[in-house]
Amino acid sequence: MATIKASSYEILIDEDYAKLNAYVESLSPSNIIIIVDENTEVHCLPKIKKHLHQDFLSIKIPAGEKYKSISTCQGLWETLIKYNCDRQSLIINLGGGVIGDMGGFVAGTYMRGIRFIQMPTTLLSQVDASVGGKLAIDLSSYKNIVGLFLEPSMVWVDTSFIQTLTELELRSGYAEVIKHALIRSKALWQRINSRKLDYSSEEWSTLITDNIAIKNFVVQQDFKEGGLRKVLNFGHTIGHSIESHFLNSTSPLTHGEAIAAGMICESYISHEQNLISESELSTITSYIRSLYPINVRLSTISTELIRIMGHDKKNVSGQILFSLIEGIGDSTYDVHVDDDIIIKALEYYDNITS
Ligand SMILES: NC(=O)c1ccc[n+]([C@@H]2O[C@H](COP(=O)([O-])OP(=O)(O)OC[C@H]3O[C@@H](n4cnc5c(N)ncnc54)[C@H](O)[C@@H]3O)[C@@H](O)[C@H]2O)c1
Ligand SMILES: [Zn+2]
User: Fold this and answer.
1) pLDDT per position as a tens digit, 101-157
2) pLDDT in tens, 291-331
3) CA of 102, nearest ligand number
4) DSSP 277
5) Domains (ranges, CATH) in the chain?
6) Range with the lowest mean pLDDT among 91-95, 210-214, 223-227, 229-233?
7) Taking the CB of residue 88, how many other CB atoms lie within 10 A of it?
8) Were 169 and a residue from 65, 68, 165, 201 both cysteine, which residue would form a disulfide, CB within 3.0 to 4.6 Å?
C-alpha cells in the first residue's frame, strides 16, 4: 500500500477499494463510464464491478495498438454523447497503455475536458504509461503523434491485475523497470540484476511502487520534457527504430523486446562516450540478453534504422540526440552521436555471444 503524490493528483498503489469508493464519491460524478478492451473486460472488470459501489456503464473496444486511432476515438466520443455524459461525468480507463493513452485523450477533449481516473492493468502501464500525463493516439504510421499533456484526477494501481498477463506482455513491461534502474537507481539495479521474472506478488508490488516513484520524480522535475524527462528515453532512440522496422514483419517485436535491444546498443554508446566502464557494459549486456534473447540482426539494416532515428521526436535541427547512462543509476541527455558510432553499437549487438 502506498500513495505517491504527483503534482495535482495522487497515485494510489492499493487493493483497498474502500479508498477508491471514497474518492469517487467525493467527485460526485453525474455518471461513470469505464473503458475496457476485450481482455480487461474479462480479467479486470469483474473485480471493479464487485468493489465499486457506484453504478457505471462500460464501453468495450478491441485490444491492440492498431485501435489506438482516431476512428476508435470517434466511436468513444459518440458513445459518451449517447450515454448523456456531461461535464460532471467521470471516465475510468481500465486497461494497458492503449486504453490509458486513448481514454485519457478522449476524456481530455470531450466537452473540452472531463475528469478521468487511470487504472493501469499491464506492467508497462503501471510503471510507465499511467504516470506523467502524456496522452496520445496514433495517426497512420506515426505513433503518439496527436495528443496532449494532461493529468488525471487519480491513478489507481491494483498490482494484482498483472497476474493474468501473458509472459510476453510481462516481459515487455519489465524492460521499463530495467530502464528506470539504469537511469536513476543503482539500488534498484542491484535488486533486479540477475533476477528472472520470478518475483512474488509482494515483490511485484514493491517493485511497481518503486518504479512509479522513479517515473513520477523525473516527470515532476520536467512535465513537458524540456530537459530532464528526456532521460526516460534511454534505449528508446535505437529501440523505437527497431520496433518500427519490424512492425510489419512476420515476427514483430514487443515494445519491451525492442527497447531491450536498444538499451544494449545505447549502453555501448555510453561506454564509447566514456560514461560507463567496460565491466558495467558487460553486466548490463548479459542481464538484458538473458531476459530478451531475441534473434535479430541489426547491422545489416543500419541505414534504415538510422533513417528512422532521424524522425525521433527528441531530435533538434535534424541531429539525432541520445539519452545515455552515466554509470549505472545516473543519466544524461541531448548527446549527439555520429552515425559511425551508432553503426558500431548495432555491430556490438550482433556480436554478442550468448
Ligand atoms: N503515456 C505514456 O507516457 C506512455 C508510456 C509508455 C507507453 N505508452 C503507450 O502504451 C501503449 C502500450 O501499453 P501496453 O503494453 O499496456 O499495451 P496494451 O494496452 O495494448 O496492453 C497489452 C495487451 O495486454 C492486454 N491486457 C491488459 N491488461 C491485462 C490484464 N490485466 N490481463 C491480461 N491481459 C491484459 C491488453 O488487452 C493487450 O492485449 C503504447 O500505445 C504506448 O505508446 C504510453
Ligand atoms: Zn518504453
Assistant:
1) 999 999 999 999 999 999 999 999 999 999 999 999 999 878 888 999 999 999 999
2) 999 889 999 999 999 999 988 777 777 789 999 999 999 99
3) 1
4) -
5) 2-164 (3.40.50.1970), 167-350 (1.20.1090.10)
6) 223-227
7) 12
8) 165
pTM above 0.85, yes or no: yes
195 is annotated as an active-site residue = no
| Active-site pick, 180, 184, 215, 271 | 215
Phi, psi (deg, nearest 5) at residue 120: -70, 140
Secondary structure element (H or E) that encloses residue 62, with its range: none
- The model's confidence at residue 354, banded by pLDDT at 50, 70 and 90, is low
The answer to whether 134 is a known catalytic residue is yes
Residues whose beta carbon lies within 6 Å of some atom of ligand 1:
37, 39-40, 43-44, 63-65, 68, 95-99, 101, 121-122, 124-125, 128-129, 132, 134, 143-144, 161, 164-165, 169, 172
The three three-digit cell numbers of residue 84, written as one number:
448523456
DSSP-derived secondary structure for 229-240: GGGGGTTHHHHH
Residue 112 designated active-site? yes
